[in-house]
Every structure is written in structure tokens, then in C-alpha cells.
Amino acid sequence: MSPNQHYLQFTDGTPFFWLGDTGWELFHRLNLTEANEYLSNRSLRGFNVIQAVILAEFDGLRKPNRNGDIPFYDLNPEKPNENYFLYVDSVIHLAKEKNLFMGLLPTWGDKVTQLWGEGPVVFNQSNAFNYGLFLGNRYKNEPNIIWILGGDRPAKNDSADWRPIWSAMAKGIKQGTNNNAIFSYHPWGGDYSTTQFMPDEKWLDVNMFQSGHGGGHDVPTWELVDRDRKILPIKPTLDGEPNYEDHPVNPWPTWNPANGYYDDYDVRKQCYRSVFAGACGVTYGHHSVWQFYSEREPVINFAKMYWQQAITRPGATQVGYLKKLMECRPMLNRIPDDNIIVSGQGTKEQHMVAFRAEDGSFGMVYLPIGKPITIDLSFIQQRQIHAWWFNPKNAAVIDIGKINRNKASQFTPPSNGIGNDWVLVLDEFNNTFSMP
């Protein structure tokens, strides 16, 4: 963790910006050649975390993977099928070759907390610990694993508490890895977060929420980040599942086609605003990719293209631009601060989010729609400020140039209106962003 505990870094102090992709059914629905195609594509676009589930959501205990193997004998977590896990090993090694971390879910949540889905529930505290110990021992020497428990389920509700089972699984993994493991937890959607279910769990290192797909456009993900950042003990947080690209809008309990699909613009708005609000990164998702929809698989929830086409959709490339933008300036000392926006911030779909460096060396503002904005520039320490526009759609840069440090200055983006989102960068550095 970074010195302020809000961000991630390697042990040598190198910052780590979490840019995840959602590949839930990776181990279940792809063969190794297909997995290589998918992972190569994601590495090329700048992703560094792949979120995938060992025990998959859609009948993952009884329906064989592409090699014809099921994970357990007799639905028993203490009777693992070696052939199944040899394939998991191979995919993890492929990811490592491509400098990708696996955001590895030991199981989808319906195997602990069914509530809905196929299940079946097979875990209790005893076998959850043993399964975790098995996984920890198996992968203790793999450097590219981030453990994610949960899987779209609450850790507790008014009638039941499943935290002891998850804690037992985490304890097993920790013991198996000699305590060399980092953990998050993927909760269900809405305004729920790990900070509500398990604020005091010592095994939990990174808080997570999912703003999801059922709340319509412009769910205030920035508010969820702000809430998590205020919870003690301080931990990094991120949106582990914002609206997926090409996912139906509000499809539950039934979908009205008039609502349409989320597009790359929706993705950019949610990702930028959560990161600028102080998240340690973000996870992108495409509706056809997470399920690896193909001619072999039944369509889930109105997916409209096969995964091989979906991996080239614009949102997947554009979130890579976000990562590059964050990496072009120091990341670990940024402070969310909408107070630098004097006028023009807006609400809902127009809501802008800003942050500044703790040392006053730079700041950025995300504008979800193009319109004039007035900024208080007093946070910059230098008398002259370098200003530039960054286009999240294509990573193009428009240099504004040097401006004098006045308390308030107005900036007008190069294009206006809905669909024209921009980032305003203000700093004392002389260089602008450039793609490698």
C-alpha cells in the first residue's frame, strides 16, 4: 500500500494502477488457445488485472470446462480434480508471461451464499478453510495473484452471516501462502461495499464495490469512493464492476429495449469519475466478454456479439488511455478535491470530478460533457501554469500553453455537449501526455 494507504504500490515503491478486465468465465468456457488470444488482447490494451473465477457462476461445479473436466469429485471441495486445476495453472502462467495479474476468485458467491443462481451451496467453515489451504499451497510461488473473495454476493444480510465462511477461506489461503497474499472481496451491486459488510476484517486489504448495471446511467460512483475513503482503517478502494460496455441498461426483472445498451461513453464517465474521486484503479467489463459468449454458449442477458468481436470494442482501448494518463504524473499523492471547481461542476450526468497533487504540482478535472468551467488555480505553487486538454476517446492532447496563476480562470473545452468528455490538466510540468 502507498504511505497514505489509499493507493497501491509494489514493495519497491513503484506505483500500481489497477486496471482490471472482467473475464469471469475464463477458466470455464475457453480452451488454452482462446485464453491466450484473450489475454494477449488485454495485455496489448494496457490491462494489468484479469478478474476470473475458478468455480464459475453458470453451473461451474457440474458443467465441464472446455477440456471436459469438472473442478471437484462428488461436488466436494475437499476432492479437487487435478486435471481441472492443471488448466487453471496453465492460464495463470499465460497471464504471468504477459505481465498480467490474476484477480482470482476461488469461487462465485452462489457456492457460499446462493440467494439466487445455480449454486449449489457446497461450502462451510471447515471445507472453505481446506479449499483455501489447497489453493494457497498450490499458488504460493505464483507472483501474479490477487485474491478476490465474494463473487456478487453480500457477506451478510438480516437473516444470515456468511463472513465466517469467507474468513475461513481467507485464513486457509493465507496459511498456504505463508501470509504472502493480498485480498479483496467482490460484493453485489448497488451502493454496497466491503466497508459496510466487513470494515474490520484484517485479511481484507482492498475495499471494493460495484456500481453495476441496474441503476441506470451515471450512478454516483464518486460518492461511493468518497464514502469508502472515509472508513477506518484506511484501505484502497475501487469500483470492481461499473456498467459494462454493451450491457443492457436496467435489465432486471425484465429489459425494455427502449433503454438501450451502455456504450463506451458511459464506461468512460464511470471509470474516470471513480478514479478521480480517489479510487486506486477501476475494472472495465464488456457484457459479451465476461461470459465469453460464442456459438457454443447460450446468450445471457441480451449480449449482442461474440466475445472475439467484443474484445476490440472502443471502451477497452479507452480505459487503457486512462491508465496511461494516471501514470504520466505521480499517482500516490493525489487528493480528491472538487473545491478547485469554482463553477460549472454540475450534477448527475454533468457531474465533474477533480483531484490535485498533495504538493501542489498538478491537478486534473474530468468533464463528462463539454462546457465552460472555472477553476481555482491557487493550489498550484508555481506562478506560471502549464494547461492542456486530454481527450479520453482517443488520447489526443490539445496544448493550452502557459497561463498566469490567477485565483480563478475559465477554461472552455475544444468541443461542447453530451458525448464530448474531456480532462483538463493543470501543472508545473513542461511536458504533456503522449502515447508510447
What are the defining features of this structure?
436 residues; six-stranded parallel sheet; six-stranded antiparallel sheet; 2 domains; alpha/beta; Immunoglobulin-like; TIM Barrel; single chain
Number of strands: 19
List the total number of helices. 11
- Write down the Rg: 22 Å
Strand residues, percent: 15-25%
Following the backbone from N to C, one meets helices and strands in this order, namely EEEHHEHEHEHEHEHEHEHHHEEEEEEEEE
Question: What is the CA-CA span between the terminal residues?
Answer: 27 Å
CATH topology of the largest domain: TIM Barrel
If strands are numbered along the chain, what order do they take across the biggest sheet? 7-6-5-4-3-10
Helical residues, percent: 25-40%
Organism: Limnovirga soli
Domain Apiosidase-like catalytic: 2-332
Pfam family, one: Collagen_bind_2
Domain Putative collagen-binding: 335-427
Brief overview, please?
Helices cover 25% and strands 21% of the residues.
Please provide a written account of the structure.
- With 436 residues, the protein is of the alpha/beta class.
- It has two domains: 8-327, TIM Barrel (Alpha-Beta Barrel); 334-427, Immunoglobulin-like.
- It has eleven helices and 19 strands.
- It comes from Limnovirga soli.
- Residues 335-427 form the Putative collagen-binding domain.
- Residues 2-332 form the Apiosidase-like catalytic domain.
- This is DUF4038 domain-containing protein.
